[in-house]
Automatic annotation (TrEMBL):
UniProt-annotated site: Cleavage, residues: D157, T158
Gene3D superfamilies xref list: (Glycosyl)asparaginase
Entry-linked Pfam families: Asparaginase_2
Sample GO molecular function, one term: threonine-type endopeptidase activity
Record: active site: T158
Organism of provenance: Caenorhabditis elegans
Lineage top rank: taxon: Eukaryota
Swiss-Prot/TrEMBL GO biological process terms: protein maturation
Protein name as annotated: TASPase homolog
Length: 331
């Protein structure tokens, strides 16, 4: 990967600390692209995506994934898909496919169920039997929560990856998820919803003396899907960041959004990369924010060094409103 491509990965909202998750995020960062990073996580049983996805109430795997690019706001997502090893690759392919445009047909943003599976087969993505996606850990988690259906879940959540090219100022973002354990069959989470699971956008601004500045954001989320959908989470945060002309700290923009839009008691988290460019000057900021116990993440910086973040949060020790942690790092 060239040093102009900055990539960050998170391992999903977690209720318990596990240092190995952050190391897996470090490895995924080294693969070079959002697609490759998500593909790596989909192979690792401990993450809730691909192989290792949570089981539905009917003891089946239904994966979902999304991809977005700042180029033309291209977006693709698949949901309730049960026979594909890497749903994130299918989502990216859907976002960039010209098949419909060439035939003057409406290009779908989301494919689900049998339609998504047929699309994957048609485009030669590796497929499997649904049973091949069921891991031992997923079975154990199903049995555990089947008898605790009214208790809070302490499992892993949606994983995500984001990137910004500091030369072109283009950005990409993606998610992959098995959804929440014991979900109803056919349920779609925030990953599949335009604006909720991911957002990547580049904007130019007119400055005095005919100068132009640019700002790019890439963001992805994890947590309780229904609450994230209602908040239009990623697009809502991105819009406020891109609209800001007063120089408000990005962490404060995110905090205000969470305070206004997120339902009380919902679990959420996310990571964001934000680049500002004017002439030859470039500033790059990485943010990690959540109200879960642990959110593992890693970033590959402009010097090609990978930084690991083991962001932890104790709600009992938090005195802010809303109760969450927001950390910001200059890259």
């Amino acid at each position: 990967m060239s040093n102009c491509e900055i990539i960050a990965v998170h391992g999903g909202a977690c209720a318990k600390f596990d240092a190995s998750l952050a190391e897996d995020c470090r490895f995924a960062c080294g693969t070079g692209t959002v697609e490759n990073a998500l593909t790596d996580l989909e192979r690792i049983e401990k993450f809730n995506c691909g192989f290792g996805s949570h089981l539905t109430i009917d003891q089946e795997v239904e994966c979902e994934a999304s991809y977005m690019s700042s180029k033309n706001l291209s977006f693709g997502a698949v949901g309730a898909i049960s026979n594909v090893f890497h749903p994130s690759r299918v989502a990216r392919h859907l976002a960039h496919s010209n098949w419909w445009k060439q035939r003057r047909l409406l290009h779908p943003l989301i494919l689900v169920g049998r339609g998504a599976e047929k699309y994957a087969v048609k485009n030669d993505f590796p497929t499997c039997t649904p049973e091949e996606l069921v891991s031992k850990a997923a079975k154990e988690s199903f049995e555990k929560y089947l008898h605790r259906m009214l208790h809070p879940y302490d499992t892993h959540d949606t994983v995500g990856a984001i990137s910004i090219n500091t030369n072109t100022m283009n950005s990409e973002s993606g998610t992959s998820s098995g959804g929440i354990v014991l979900k109803h069959s056919g349920r779609l989470g925030h990953s599949c919803v335009y604006g909720s699971g991911t957002w990547s956008e580049r904007r130019q601004y007119e400055e005095p003396f005919d100068q132009v500045s640019e700002r790019t954001i890439s963001i992805c989320s994890t947590g309780h899907g229904e609450s994230l959908v209602k908040a239009d989470f990623c697009r809502g945060i991105a819009t406020r960041v891109l609209d800001d002309e007063e120089g408000i700290m990005y962490s404060e923009i995110i905090r205000e959004f969470i305070h206004e839009k997120m339902e009380h008691g919902s679990r959420y988290g996310g990571i964001a990369l934000i680049a500002d460019k004017f002439k030859d000057r470039m500033s790059l900021e990485f943010l990690i924010f959540h109200n879960c116990r642990y959110l593992p993440a890693a970033v590959r910086c402009r010097d090609n060094q990978i930084r690991v973040f083991e962001s932890q949060f104790d709600p009992d020790q938090c005195t802010t409103d809303p109760k969450c942690v927001i950390e910001s790092f200059i890259m």
